[in-house]
Amino acid sequence: MRLRVNPVDCAAHGICADLLPEWIRLDERGYPIVNDPELPPELVEGARRAANHCPALALRLDPENV
Amino acid sequence: MASGVGPSALWYLTRGTGAVTLVLLTASVAIGVANVRRTQTERVPRFVLDAVHRSASLLALGFLAVHVVTSVLDPFAPIRLIDAVVPFVSAYRPVWLGLGAIASDLLIAVALTSVLRRRFGHRAWRATHWLAYACWPVALVHGLGTGSDAKTSWMLALTAGSVLVVLAAVGLRAAAGWPDHIGARVSAIAAAVAVPIALLIWLPTGPLSSGWSKRAGTPTSLLATGTPVSATTTSTNGSSAGSGAGGVAPAAFNASVTGTTGQSPLGNGLVRVDLRLALAGQPLNASDIQIDGQPLNDGGVEMTSSAVTLGTSAKPTMYRGRVTALAGTSIEARVSSTRGSLVLLARLQISPSSGSVTGTLTAQPLATH
Q: In the prediction, which pLDDT does A34 show?
C-alpha cells in the first residue's frame, strides 16, 4: 500500500501524526512528513485509520500500482 | 383518550432522549467549533477530540431516532412520522415541532455526508457540515418551544449550560483560528452574540411566561382528534338566528367572552380544569369547558377527556359536546343539540394569578347530512 499526502488539501491538523507516529511526523509548521510512501503491511490498519480521520481528506491510502 | 400506557413511559422517553440529544449535539458542536484548527493539549491529543466529536454525533443520531419514534408512538400527542421529517405540517404545535423536524433533517444530512465523506468529496462534505451550525440552535429552540420540561430548573440549567459551552467554543475559535476567513469570523461572533440575546428576549415572553404553558390549567400538551384549530373561521358577527329560550337554532356567531377558570383534583392523580365562560351579546350566552387529565410539571394538563356545554344562563346545557382540538389556549370543540351541531373555536387569554379568562368564541354550524 502507498500512503500519500495531498499537500494542497492538507491543512496541518496533525491528526495523522497522532494516529500513525510510526510513519508520520510533523514538520515545524505542523505539516506531515511521510517516512516512505511504501507502507509496511503491519501499519496498513493504522494508516487506514489515519486517512479516515483526516479532517481535510488529504491523506490517501492507495493500493500498489495505482 | 384510551388509558393504556398513558402519558408516562413513551412520553418520558421522548423527553429524556430529547434532553440527551441536546447534550450530545452540544458536545459535538463545541468540539467541532473549537477543534478545527490545531487545538490540542498535552493530555488530550487531537485525534481524541476528533473521535469524541464523531462518537457524540452518532450517539446523538441514535438518541434522536428514539426521540422521534417514541413521540410518534405516544398516543397522547398526535404526532405522525411525517411530522418528524417535513416541518410545519403537524397538527400538534406545528412551529415548535417543525423546528425539531428541521434540526433532525439537518443532522441526518450532516451525518450522512460525513459517513460517506470520501464519496462526496471534501468540498461537498465541508459545505454540508456547515449545516451543523444551523442544526444546533434550531434544536435548542425546538426544545425550549415544545419541551414539556422546558420550564423546569434542571432543563433550563442544561439549556443555559449548552449555550455557554458553545459560546466558549466560539470564543476559543475566534481567538485562535481562521487566519484567512475574516467574514466567517465576524459572522460567527455576531451570531454567537445575537442568539443568546434573542433567547433572553424571547424566553420571558415565550416559553417561560405563564401564558405559554401554564395558563392556569389549560392544557399545554394535549391531544387533538379533530381538525386543526385554524380551520374554523367565522362569517357573521353578532347575529344569531332564533330568539328566546328554546328557539335557538344553530347559526354562526362571534362573541367576546369573559369568565373564570379553576382547577380541582379528581382523585387518582387526575385534575379537572373548568372554564366557565359568559358570551357577550348572544342568545347563547353561557359556555362551560371541562378538561380532565394528568397534570404536568409546567402547570398544564395532558387531556384525557373533556366535556363542553353551550346554552343560555337559564338552560346552560342546551348544547353538549367535547373538545376536538387544542393548541395553546385555542380550543376547538364540537357541540350538538337536537337542533344541530356547532363547531366552537375559543381563543382565550388566561390570567394565572386571578384565574380570569378573556377572549373570543366563534361558532359555525356544522353541515350535516
A: 93
User: Which of A52, A20, A56, A51 lies closest to B115, judged by CA?
Assistant: A52
B51 interfaces chain A, CB cutoff of 8 Å: yes
Structure ipTM over 0.85, yes or no: no
Q: Where a domain ends, among B176, B208, B240?
A: B208
* Residue of A14, A19, A57 with shortest CB distance to B38: A14
Map residue B248 onto helix, strand or coil: coil
Pairwise CA distance, residues B340 & B276, whole Å: 23
Q: Name the minimum distance, in Å, from the CA of A56 to any CA of chain B.
A: 7
Judging contacts by C-beta atoms under 8 Å, the chain B residues touching residue A56 are 122
Reference B360, options B200, B238, B245; nearest CA is B238
Window 134-193 of B: residues touching A by CB (8 A cutoff) are none
Q: What angle do CA B227, B229, B235 make, to 5 degrees?
A: 105
Evaluate if residue B86 carries a pLDDT over 50: yes
Which of B238, B207, B368 is CA-nearest to residue B300? B207
Q: Does residue B156 share a domain with residue B25? A: yes
The reported pTM is 0.63
Residues B158 and B306 in one domain: no
What total number of domains does chain B contain? 2
pLDDT at B333 over 70: yes
Closest alpha carbon to B192 in B216, B172, B214 = B172
- CA distance, residue B48 to nearest chain A CA (Å): 9
Give the mean model confidence (pLDDT) for residues B307-327: 87
Structural domain that includes position B312: 215-365
